[in-house]
Design brief:
- The complex is a heterodimer of chains A (360) and B (112).
- Chain A has 360 residues and is mainly beta.
- Chain A contains two helices and 30 strands.
- In chain A, the strands form seven sheets. In chain A, strands 8, 9, 10, 11 and 12 form a five-stranded antiparallel sheet that branches. In chain A, strands 21, 22, 23, 24 and 25 form a five-stranded antiparallel sheet that branches. A four-stranded antiparallel sheet of chain A has the order 3-2-1-30, with no helix packed on it.
- In chain A, a hairpin with a 2-residue loop joins strand 27 and strand 28.
- Chain A is globular, with a radius of gyration of 20 Å.
- About 4% of the residues of chain A have low confidence.
- Helix content of chain B is 24%, strand content 0%.
- Chain B starts with 8 loop residues before the first helix and ends in a 9-residue tail after the last helix.
- The model of chain B has no long low-confidence stretch (mean pLDDT 75).
- Classes of the chains: A mainly beta (360), B mainly alpha (112).
- At the A-B interface, strand 29 of A face helix 2 and helix 3 of B.
Chain lengths: 360, 112
Amino acid sequence: MNKSAFLILTAFWAAHAGTIFLPGYPDKILAIDESTHKIIDRIPSEIGIPTSISQSYDRKKIYVTSNDHNGVEVIDIATRRVLDHFVLNEGNHQQRIYGVAPDPADKILYTVVRDVTKQADRYEIGKFKYAVIDIAQKKIVRTADIPPDEQEGNIPYPGMNPFHVSPDGKYLYQFRDKVTILDSSNFQVVDKIDLAKPDFPDLTAVGIGATFGTLFEQGAFISLFNAEDPIVHRRQFGIARFDLNSREFQFTEIGPAPAGMMGIQVAPDRKTGYSVISSGEHGNRRCEFWAFDLTKNQRTMTAEFPCRPRFSFGISSDGKHLYLYGAGFEIESWNAATLKHEETIDLHNDVTMGGIIVVP
Amino acid sequence: MRHLRAVNLKARRIHDFVTATQDHVVGLQGPPPPPKMRVPLGCTLIFTPGWEVDSAGGAAGLCQPLERDIYDCYVDCYWPAQVPDHLNNATDWANKCASATKDWRNLDLIFP
């Protein structure tokens, strides 16, 4: 290959490399070039420590939230500039939020809030409530009480994605101990499905919610779930595909449920998916990558890897690399085809457990 | 003078007030605070077994590097450790700390 051809090829590759967005301490969103693994931008978080990020429905913006000032920031992905930001705190009153889910029009954000009022001698802590944030008005415009039996399932945590919204905007999906479907107009439960989001020991409530499963443009959601038969309570894991508009789903069992399992990350060709499973705990924990052929609903490959005590899991924009990140200042890159370690990227900046967004 | 006790109520109230200003226990060590109701400054006021251990009493379940765990304790008091309370009282404590292993010297003491 001559020099000019090499330069053209390099420029082509650079032009098509994706970008990783990671919320970092203390007040930045790190933009990392996937080809060079360099930080190309540090987008300021005007709302405090960014504890959650989520992508807009049109895939053009990022919503950042903080739980100290309880703010929302909107970032344009193309220009990597802050378009808007506001906080919900007023005086001695907080509306504590941990993550948001945009509606298909990207005008309102669905979330779960908790009232916190600072009195002279104490804090008054309210119950969790469903809430709707109007981005244009920069405030909460609607709330609804959560029934007592639903309170525990709605306890939020940093990085949590509280809902997945159907493309027609009518339904809100919560993937937790059961799949709970709410009417977006009044937050009433319209259906429950006996499929459970897998647990991951030691990470149970920390920051894996944002990366659970993959939502495609037309409202098709895919991830791994556990199901239990009612007689001997044997837990089986499998792949579930949801049509968020019609509320129909298809669940294909694959095998006995492992002790710990994350959601699935799907490659852009939608034929291959990856997950992380674990067994044991603390110093004895073992972790493995599992690869799945989504056309046949089969596990195709496994590989053990030395896992950190706390991490999150993602996939590159081209589906060729798997990322382990979070709870540290490094991203570990693994080859998706061979499940072999490739590189450890030192960001020189700690990242929060607020999730990851990778755009082509 | 400690062996002397006040006999009238007003003198006792003065004594109690002075004692309160001198010996009041607050979340973190600092100069004598003014006599008023206070809100605890830290995520926990329990000082045993140390600043942080995992749920098994060891360190294998903590972050790697270990220093990074200070954020998950501090940001939402997820784990009971002797760190300031980010949500209520010390929102700016880590504003100068982007990497806990390198910038920990920028984490300062908190006073009421």
